[in-house]
Amino acid sequence: MIGRKTALKIRKTHRYLGLFIGIQFLMWTISGLYFSWTDIDDIHGDQFKNLQYQPKAFQNLLSPAQLDVPKGIRTIELRDINKIPYYWINEQQLFNALNGELKSEISKDEAVYVAKQYMKKELEIINVERITEVGKQHEYRERLLPAYVISYADNEALKAYVSVNDGKFQTVRHRRWRWFDFLWMTHTMDYEGRDNFNTTVLRAFSLLGLITVLSGFLLWYTSSPTIRKINKRTKK
């Protein structure tokens, strides 16, 4: 049987561990509840997208073999930019698919055209901005830059992103997504990039959480009247 002094030490350890990691346990619980009660399609912004969009079909396109690509073509994608077809070659160069001209980047008007194809028609655009860099915690992190940010007149602070170099519609961001992203950060405890599950802080708190739970079980064992009665009977 564990002595009284040992039991008191276990109780004290359990109490202070619970106090130390209690806030993080609360954040894990709140974020877990939010994740389980929200529709992931809404978080992705499907309610703002034109889900019936079908890429425009083009005819009489230039053969990709005729393009000036010295090292050859590894990948190719077709883009509709302001009703003009473009080839996105090797994830590096944008060529007019009708005359083969190289296009360095798209304009604001062309970005707006691309966004209108993917977003619902009734949405009103209030601003278009070009960005060239973002931080590790930015809502457009780890995507192609530079990019155009198309802002809409919506109470969700809705924004769409179109990359400048390839004219591709990248993503949608809105208030509920930002709440999801913040809670995801508290869940993973990656306060720098938000998406790393292997942080030292997360590992440490997970280990402390396990110790707290185990100390709770041990505390129950040492203070349970039933266990004490059983121990007394076994001694007899």
Structure summarized in a few sentences:
The chain has 236 residues and is an alpha+beta fold. It is built from six helices and eight strands, in the order H-H-E-E-E-E-H-E-E-E-E-H-H-H. It has helices at 4-37, 40-43, 108-118, 175-188, 200-223, 225-235; strands spanning 76-81, 84-89, 93-96, 102-103, 125-131, 147-152, 159-163, 169-173.
Order of helices and strands: HHEEEEHEEEEHHH
Question: Helix/strand/pairing class, anyone?
Answer: alpha+beta
What percent of residues are in strands? 15-25%
Q: Please, what is the average pLDDT?
A: 87
C-alpha-based Rg, rounded = 28 Å
Biggest sheet descriptor: 4 strands, antiparallel
Q: Distance N terminus to C terminus? A: 14 Å
Shape: elongated
Number of helices: 6
Write up what this structure looks like.
- The chain contains six helices and eight strands, in the order ααββββαββββααα.
- 42% of the residues lie in helices and 17% in strands.
- It is α+β, with helices and mostly antiparallel strands and 236 residues long.
- β7 and β8 (169-173) form a beta hairpin.
- The strands form two sheets. A four-stranded antiparallel β-sheet has the order 1-2-3-4. A four-stranded antiparallel β-sheet has the order 5-6-7-8.
- It starts with a helix and ends with a helix.
- The longest helix is centred in the first third of the chain and has 34 residues, at 4-37.
